[in-house]
Write a sequence for this structure.
């Protein structure tokens, strides 16, 4: 037994250095690390110059742990940096968005057009009584109006709270109440899995609760029959279209709140993470430039996240628009009308930079190589990953099958709370290791510490912490100051604890090992669920795996694994494959990590942002009634898994 907080068991020896051609043209060169280390605050001052300032800041940082103010005394308007400036600089004709609706309808929106759309929407919001500081809930499908609505709020200083369109009426209501929103912006519905779904009824249902919502602004997307509350509901086109096409921006303080975004915590009540203006915008623009190597004149960038997620906020709306990027946005699901839909879109628009999540990469792996192979993906030059640890095998598959073996991969670690990327390779600098996010980006300080807060040496594991304030950090949990301090700043006083376990390899590269509440304790060894999952996925038969620690009278916890097989792999009940997989894990990590039980499933319970809800699998593995599954993308999944597990119990 070692004294590590989390044991470091698996090893990965492959590395992939950027090509000299990539390095030669890269936005970020190796010298950036030294520059930031020399004078961190001066470095951030320099990055803040990427924004358009009405009044420059007096002081870079005011830090009274755990409260930060960045670029103190500055004044700016978010949308001037994201829109007006491009038009002024002569790039109004550049395409901001290629929108692809799921049914195949498309829209092409230039920067000039987007500025007009946002100006009209801003005028509309003002005309219906929305003022700076008011909260606006946005509950929409991924259509251009969702982006316009966010930007229109930012333009007038209203605070948006985007609620993912897949959430229930209850989830919407609690978020409306918590932020005390005055207005809801929604749509009649959207398109998903080949059919129109309705959104407005969920808003109507939510608003039966106690709220201060006076108006509902409704975008017509599907044209379906929509119930109407006279005096409260307004069609977007009736209110927005007739407005003036210009809008004179007002300027706000650097620390003016920009948005609230709810994220689930360990308790049932979601946390309203809130972000402010200048620091957030500075870091999203900087990271988007150096991590994605964006070249606004030539790149076509596609971040596949929904606006309901922080990735959509930072890397589809604010970062790329400030940098003047041309983007693709897609409304629908990856398998509609066929499993090659996303590859078809890459080919159609000549996408050069793709940013997606491991869950989708593993889904593609499961479907099989024939789908990406049908399309020309040679326009791609950089690939990104976010949201959870990417298993080395999924990384290698992504590199070869999607990237054609010659795109750098940036595995980006960050959180709703951090606002922007914190740990990631720099694509023209870092020799990457599959499965590692490598090291903090220039300007950021992150460490792996033991349970006393002391940094661990290379080759050891522990807790991931951030020991210096950063510009895009959350400024609090909306209305819950105690919770802010308790959740993030109490484990190690004065230091931000991210909730993630991580290890440093022999070279000091960082390997994320999932939430520490996902760490298992088997016979006194702390083993990360991610490590066992990676070992399973490194077997050729496995596309995806989820692992939980279930109470075990003998070992404290026993490892229970749920696996999805790759396309084409046959599995007969009780067959040798299960044994082989258990032995494979033993070989990869050690006998201690051998799963007690492995079950083959067709689907895993995931949230809409793709995170596996291990809590639910744990309920099943421990023979409990399955807990609250309302945030699952597909609520039926748990029923199938529970039934399957019962019948597989005696096998092993
Ligand atoms: C996990 C998403 C490993 C991590 C931007 C974090 C990751 C949580 C990675 C935040 C990564 C995100 N490697 N784990 N590259 N990126 N995570 O708030 O556990 O939805 O704490 O933000 O996702 O999730 P959130």
């Amino acid at each position: 037994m070692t004294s590590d907080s989390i044991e470091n068991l698996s090893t990965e020896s492959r590395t992939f250095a950027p090509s000299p051609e990539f390095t030669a043209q890269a936005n970020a060169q190796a010298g950036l690390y030294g520059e930031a280390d020399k004078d961190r605050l001066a470095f951030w001052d320099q990055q803040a110059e990427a924004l358009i300032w009405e009044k420059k800041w007096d002081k870079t940082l005011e830090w009274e742990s755990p409260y930060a103010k960045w670029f103190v005394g500055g004044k700016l308007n978010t949308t001037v940096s994201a829109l007006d400036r491009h038009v002024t600089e002569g790039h109004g004709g550049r395409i901001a968005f290629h929108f692809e609706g799921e049914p195949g309808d498309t829209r092409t929106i230039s920067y000039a057009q987007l500025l007009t759309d946002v100006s009209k929407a801003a005028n509309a919001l003002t005309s219906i009584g929305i003022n700076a500081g008011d909260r606006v809930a946005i509950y929409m499908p991924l259509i251009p109006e969702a982006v316009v609505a966010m930007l229109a709020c930012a333009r007038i200083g209203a605070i948006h709270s985007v609620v993912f369109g897949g959430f229930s009426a209850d989830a919407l209501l609690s978020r409306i109440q918590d932020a005390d929103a005055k207005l809801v912006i929604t749509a009649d519905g959207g398109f998903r899995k080949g059919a129109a779904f309705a959104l407005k009824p969920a808003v109507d249902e939510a608003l039966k609760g106690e709220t201060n919502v006076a108006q509902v602004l409704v975008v017509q997307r599907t044209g379906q029959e929509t119930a109407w509350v006279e005096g409260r509901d307004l069609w977007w086109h009736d209110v927005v279209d007739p407005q003036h096409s210009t809008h004179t921006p007002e300027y706000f303080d650097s620390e003016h709140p920009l948005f609230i975004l709810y994220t689930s915590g360990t308790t049932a009540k979601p946390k309203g993470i809130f972000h402010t203006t200048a620091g957030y915008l500075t870091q999203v623009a900087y990271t988007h430039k150096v991590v994605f190597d964006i070249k606004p004149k030539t790149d076509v960038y596609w971040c596949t996240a929904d606006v309901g997620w922080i990735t959509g906020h930072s890397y589809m709306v604010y970062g790329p628009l400030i940098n003047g990027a041309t983007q693709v946005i897609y409304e629908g699901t990856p398998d509609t009308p066929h499993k090659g839909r996303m590859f078809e879109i890459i080919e159609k628009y000549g996408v050069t930079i793709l940013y997606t999540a491991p869950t989708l990469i593993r889904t593609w792996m499961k479907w099989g190589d024939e789908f990406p192979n049908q399309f020309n993906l040679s326009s791609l030059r950089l690939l990104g990953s976010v949201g959870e640890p990417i298993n080395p095998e999924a990384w290698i598959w992504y590199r070869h099958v999607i990237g054609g073996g010659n795109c750098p991969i940036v595995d980006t670690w960050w959180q709703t709370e951090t606002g922007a990327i914190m740990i990631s390779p720099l694509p023209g600098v870092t020799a990457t290791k599959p499965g590692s996010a490598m090291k903090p980006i220039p300007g950021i300080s992150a460490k792996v510490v033991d349970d006393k807060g002391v940094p661990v040496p290379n080759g050891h594991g522990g807790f991931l912490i951030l020991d210096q304030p950063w510009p895009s950090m959350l400024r609090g949990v909306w209305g819950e100051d105690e919770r802010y301090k308790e959740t993030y700043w109490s484990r190690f006083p004065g230091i931000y604890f991210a909730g993630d376990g991580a290890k440093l390899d022999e070279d000091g590269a960082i390997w994320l090992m999932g939430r520490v509440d996902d760490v298992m304790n088997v016979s006194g060894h702390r083993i990360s669920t991610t490590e066992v999952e990676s070992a399973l996925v490194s077997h050729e038969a496995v596309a995806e795996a989820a692992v939980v620690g279930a109470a075990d009278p003998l070992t404290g916890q026993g490892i229970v694994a749920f696996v999805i097989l790759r396309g084409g792999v046959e599995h007969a009940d009780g067959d040798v494959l299960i044994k082989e997989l258990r032995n494979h894990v033993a070989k990869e990590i050690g006998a201690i990590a051998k799963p007690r039980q492995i079950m083959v499933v067709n689907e895993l319970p995931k949230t809409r942002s793709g995170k596996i809800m291990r809590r639910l699998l744990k309920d099943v593995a421990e023979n409990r009634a399955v807990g609250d599954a309302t945030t699952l993308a597909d609520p039926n999944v748990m029923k199938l898994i529970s039934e399957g597990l019962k019948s597989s119990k005696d096998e092993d």
About this structure: The mean pLDDT is 92. Residues 111-127 form the longest helix (17 residues). Residues 263, 310-311, 386-389, 411-416, 437, 498-500, 512, 514-515, 609 surround WTA (CB under 6 Å).
